Amino acid sequence: MTTIADRLELAQQRITTAAKNSARNPDEIQLLAVSKTKPVSDILAAYQAGQRRFGENYVQEGQQKVEALLQQCPDIEWHFIGPLQSNKSRIVADYFDWMHTLERAKIADRLNAQRPSDKAPLNVCIQVNISGEASKSGVVDKDSMLALAAHIATLPKLKLRGLMAIPSHSDDKQLAKELDTMQQLFNTLQLGYESVDTLSMGMSQDLELAVAHGSTMVRIGSAIFGERDYSANAN
Ligand SMILES: *Cc1c(COP(=O)(O)O)cnc(C)c1O
């Protein structure tokens, strides 16, 4: 039976191979372990294998896990990667180090106001709705990306780190096109902001193609923790 530690190592090897195939330095690509719906014991197993970055999608579930692991694993970096309703922004401001799914100035304002002053600025990525599907979140074009970036830059408790996308997985050609557009948007954003260093894209299915298109942070869930069971999840 493969363990979480084994699968973590396999994911790392996939990143290294993908980086080499694109003539990139593997150290430029960070692995975010996506632990949504998974128990604290799974996070602990990955932690003991050396993993320090974890991603959660649900506010309350994330808060519970941060609290459960605070003493034992104080050096975990927690990333919020799910959709955020404005009435729950305080939990993200209080408990997380990163927020990948920022898409509105109003939420940015709330996070900035709610971020505790004894904490480092919240690292944020702007989510881009790269597939253009109505069901997906995110800014829809370059102008709205730049407008939101300019707004974030005025907020002292937020630090703009980059862009995040969840591409459509209809077919490989469409996927490559979307990833390519993301890379161009990322290059544009980097020209304007020194703090921008993160292109958050790539999941278990498509990490190789994402790395080929400049991803600097891949978000890997099922390839590390196994398939998810949503039936027990209420939030
Ligand atoms: C669940 C999730 C992931 C991980 O997906 P896998 O296919 O399990 O690797 C990555 N990013 C986001 C935003 C997610 O919601």
UniProtKB/TrEMBL annotation:
Q: Which domain of life is it from?
A: Bacteria
- Locate the N6-(pyridoxal phosphate)lysine modifications and list their residues: 36
Does the entry feature the keyword Zinc, yes or no?
no
An example of a GO molecular function for this protein is: pyridoxal phosphate binding
PROSITE patterns given in the database record: UPF0001 (PS01211)
Sorted alphabetically, which InterPro entries does this protein's record hold?
A: Ala_racemase_N, PLP-binding_barrel, PyrdxlP_homeostasis
- Database matches in NCBIfam families: YggS family pyridoxal phosphate-dependent enzyme (TIGR00044)
Q: What family does this chain come from, according to its entry?
A: Belongs to the pyridoxal phosphate-binding protein YggS/PROSC family.
Its biological purpose: Pyridoxal 5'-phosphate (PLP)-binding protein, which is involved in PLP homeostasis.
What name does this protein carry?
Answer: Pyridoxal phosphate homeostasis protein
